[in-house]
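anyone else get weird line breaks when pasting these?? whatever heres mine. first is seq + tokens for prot A
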Amino acid sequence: MPSLVTNSFSANTRIKSAQVNTNFDDLVKQRIDFVGAKATLAATQNVVNTDTWTQVNLDTEIYDIGSNFDVATTYDFTAPVAGYYLIVGSIRWQTTKDTFKYITAVALNNSLAVPLIIGEAQSSVTSGLLIASCTDIRHLDAGDILELWGQHNDGTANPDFFGDGNGAQTYLMVILIARD
């Protein structure tokens, strides 16, 4: 991080704009070093097919420091710098069935061949609500893309991703914790 230039001034000293700008620029650079975003689902999203991955259309930002989350078209997060990131994906499934599995995964660079992180939950009630989540710290390169996906095996088109826009249950959160 850049160090701030400190100046000592006596009464009636005029401060040059260059002195102020140097400190301001350094402060801005320090602030840009923080990367963090959390996006959620504004309304319930239908999950059509069983045993098929469905991307969660994360269309509402809770916060996005650095403008790295696309909530308009691709519903994904793009890492602006290389480093280690805390990644949390969570899906609240509604209208679940007893004994079936509900999976949450975070895909790296549009690939679910091997999800970056994955979480699974099994329902124990009929017509219940269930949260499946996954959390990990992973290294990302600048330009890596993360997406939230879900899959179920209950044989129907009934379970949905629950969304209410508040970010408490269905969301993807990504926070840079250490730069390379």
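and prot B, same format (seq, then tokens)
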Amino acid sequence: MNQQHLDLLGTDEWRQTLEDRVLPFAFGPLGADALGADVLEVGPGPGMTTDLLRTRLPQLTSIELDPDLAAALRTRLAGSNVDVIEGDGTAMPFDDGRFTGVVMFTMLHHVPTIELLLNSRARPLRWRRVDLDSTNIDEAALGWPWTPIDVPQEEFEPAAERKFVYDTTYWSQSNSGHTFGDHLTAAERRAVIEYLKTL
């Protein structure tokens, strides 16, 4: 996570964006309840999404790669319904089928699929969702159906759909970083995706 991204994730403005736009967009009409009783959050960072999710879910496990962020979040949420684990999202220490749902935020807002999350060199500069039903996913790539676009977000038409455009040239929305999957072969990336489907 770059420093600009980390700085943004701790702001009141980001919390409001999560509350007003990101969570409703991600969950759609089903709400967080559709995730079930034992949910995994991958990559909580400083824990802004964790704070919002833990009030909506019975049990949340958050796995964070950065040891300092994981330790701070674990200390802050001690005694709550959140279990914070320091670990790698590509090598998780959990049994198959343990979780009823999995969420990833502050990574996937600028990367449309897990496949692209695991391959930084293939990520689009600008893209938009092509199917706004939050229950429809690209089963092969494990993420949203998407298409690349060639204009900045503020020039996209119709203007009402600009909120569904992701422009990674904007401050803090870069799709750089999160390169932990770049060393994997295509077969290894596919194995990670297939494993995530079992959770």
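btw re prot B: The chain has six helices and seven strands. The chain has a mean pLDDT of 86.
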